[in-house]
Amino acid sequence: MEPSEEESRNLLQTRGYVKASLSKLHKLAQPEAALQQYSVEYLKAKRERAQALFMEYDDYCRKITFSGYKDAEDETTENKYFDVVAALDEEINKRAAAAAAAASAAVAQDKSTEHVSTGSVKKVTLPPIAIQTFSDNFTARAYQLERDPATEPSIEHLLRFLEKRALALENVEQGHGPPASEARAPG
User: Fold this and answer.
1) Stretch 139-143: mean pLDDT
2) pLDDT tens-digit profile of 14-26?
3) In degrees rounded to 5, what are phi and psi of residue 44?
4) pLDDT, mean of residues 128-135
5) Are residues 61 and 73 in contact, defined by beta-carbon separation less than 8 angstroms?
6) What is the DSSP string of the chain?
7) 67 with 4: CB under 8 angstroms?
């Protein structure tokens, strides 16, 4: 069945509108420098728009062909679509690579300044820690008696001693009523 003149004209006009929209996008993507002024989100949205327009264009071409109308459509619109997609993808990928390189450089910079700052070790500021003074003369004397005076004391040795001492004091307090901290008078 041959399409009516009006149906054919409507299909051709609607396809023409879609072609015009794709041509606008093609103009946007022509000078590569112009794409640099837009955000990545904008470029992605334009790419999605181009894809939707091309699918719509392809649908109208199919309808026109199946209607039996003799159409002399060439590949110009299809080539414009591929030009647009290629230009947008190139700019998006270029920016993604630049962002990845910048992030990698920032991580490398952070790691290098973490260990070295102008040839010296970077100082780290720690929060203040309240530590009570060690005023138990008996424990201090016991530590001095237990350790070997011929060797330098180490933090590991001191921590092992304090752990043993704390366990011993806990056992003594459990066997003799209230802990020493409760037995003392406030003062």
Assistant:
1) 77
2) 999 999 998 888 8
3) -65, -40
4) 71
5) yes
6) -PPPHHHHHHHHHHHHHHHHHHHHHHHHHSSHHHHTTS-HHHHHHHHHHHHHHHHHHHHHHHHHHHTT------SHHHHHHHHHHHHHHHHHHHHHHHHHHHHHHHHHHHHHHHH-BTTBPPP-PPPP--------HHHHHHHHHHS-TTS---HHHHHHHHHHHHHHHHHHHHHSSS-HHHHSPP-
7) no
pTM for this prediction: 0.53
* Residues constituting the chain: 187
The values of phi and psi at residue 68, to 5°, are 90, 0
Radius of gyration of the chain (CA): 40
- Summarize pLDDT for 50-71 with one digit per residue, the tens: 999 999 999 988 888 888 877 7
**Structure tokens given for 108:** 């490398």
Quick one: tokens of 170? Answer: 């806990």
| Sign of the CA dihedral with 91 first, then 96, 97, and 103 last | positive
Distances (CA, A) of 22 to 75, 84, 87, 173: 13, 9, 14, 86
More confident of the two residues 81 and 169: 81
